[in-house]
Amino acid sequence: MSDVLAVAEQRDGVLRKVSSEVVTGARRLADALAVRVDALVVAASPVQGADQLGGFGADKVITLTNPAFGRYAPEGYARVIADRARAGGYRAVLFAASAGGRDLAPRVAARLGVALAQDITDLAFEGGAVTVIHPVYAGKALLKLKLTATPAVVSLRPNVFTPVQRPKAGTAETVPVEAAAGRVVVTGTKAAAGALDVAEASIVISGGRGLKEPANFKVLEALAAAFGGRAAVGASRAVVDAGWRPHADQVGQTGKTVSPTLYIAVGISGAIQHLAGMRTSKVIVAINKDKDAPIFKVADYGVVGDLFEVVPRLTEEIKKLHG
Amino acid sequence: MAAKKKPLELKRAALGAGGLEVLGLTPPPQRKDGKVVGEGPAAVPELLRLLREEAKVL
Fold it and tell me: Is the ipTM of this complex over 0.85?
């Protein structure tokens, strides 16, 4: 028994996309160790779609249920996950480095009395220990760490571990647990209407000062909509500071770190602090009227031109593509 | 000057075992040089072609 535990994430009883990434990362580690993967869901009642985690490499999906777990309860969640991790004798416990996971992982690690590596972009099993890669100095360097304690507790940067479907299905098991929610409970969350989180979207379209005024962000929103729910709209620090966009949308050193499959920077010059938040994106497209803007140095593809002409044209073509 | 007369007590701090070991620090892989596809809206079809056929992200 020294399997890998992948802690899945649910919101309002629906499994979140990052869960399949965590299970994929867990599977990769488990294959190196030749062990099994257990996926763990903490929820008020059985979560719809939890069994699908089997398709990403979980041998067993365990759902710990308690009516107190309808909403995120830091202490309650941490206690049951740590108890489970201890009881199962796991070699590693993996979380998503999402807002929730980044809060939960340290609590669980502290309860287990082990070290934690947050926001990692790669993991392996080398020389008898779990090793991870953690980007530091605003992404300008990669730190390789060895976790000497057992279990190794880590959180995986969203969108880095591309989910891999497997033909094998796992088994599912629901275990009601005794637990109080704890002293701190989340009584409600308010999200910007229907917006996808920039850190978790597979396509991010960010706007900067080049958009000239807040109302012009509708140009980017139209492009995001053309991608049919896969794209989120981000922003540079300049426009967030100016109050054009909420801070939750800010991409960069003092905002969110994103690594989508496709990042489109519109009217963003590309200050180093902005690059810190998006340089790990798989493909970067820049649209800017200044051909000397630093953003073109990191972009895979650049279009020099007036964004108010280029973006609507792009929106049109994407719409055609998606019919 | 009263502060100077206070006794200074030195204690050894006991560090835990520590569960993390730094193995190395490396620069991130260089992104390959990008290219400017073109100027203005006329470059959009070519951009899409590249995204679809070369980068395969669409």
Answer: no
Q: Residue A117: which CATH number?
A: 3.40.50.620
Tell me the per-residue pLDDT of A105-148, one tens digit each, with 9 for 90 and over: 999 999 999 999 999 999 999 989 999 999 998 888 999 999 99
Whichever domain contains A221, its CATH number is 3.40.50.1220
- The partner residues of A285 in beta bridges, in order of sequence, read A264, A301
Q: Are residues A156 and A43 in the same domain?
A: yes
Residues of B in contact with A303 (CB under 8 A): 36-40, 43-44, 47
Segments forming the whole domain that contains residue A251: 203-322
Question: Per-residue pLDDT averaged across A76-85, rounded?
Answer: 95
Interior angle at CA A230, CA A54 and CA A289, nearest 5: 145
Phi then psi for residue A93, to 5 deg, are -125, 120
Is A140 at the interface with chain B, CB within 8 A? yes
Distance of residue A243 Cα from the nearest chain B Cα, in angstroms: 29
A254/B contact by beta carbon, under 8 A: no
Query: What integer pLDDT is reported at residue A227 of this predicted model?
Result: 93
Q: How many beta-carbon pairs below 8 A join chains A and B? A: 122
For residues A218 and A270, state if they share a domain.
Answer: yes
Q: What are phi and psi of A166, to 5 degrees?
A: -125, 150
Q: Is residue A71 part of a domain?
A: yes
Residues in contact with A208: Cβ distance below 8 Å, sequence separation at least 6, in sequence order: A235, A236, A238, A239, A265, A266, A267, A268, A269, A274
3-state secondary structure of A60: strand
Q: Is residue A166 part of a domain?
A: yes
The domain total for chain A is 2
pTM above 0.90, yes or no: no
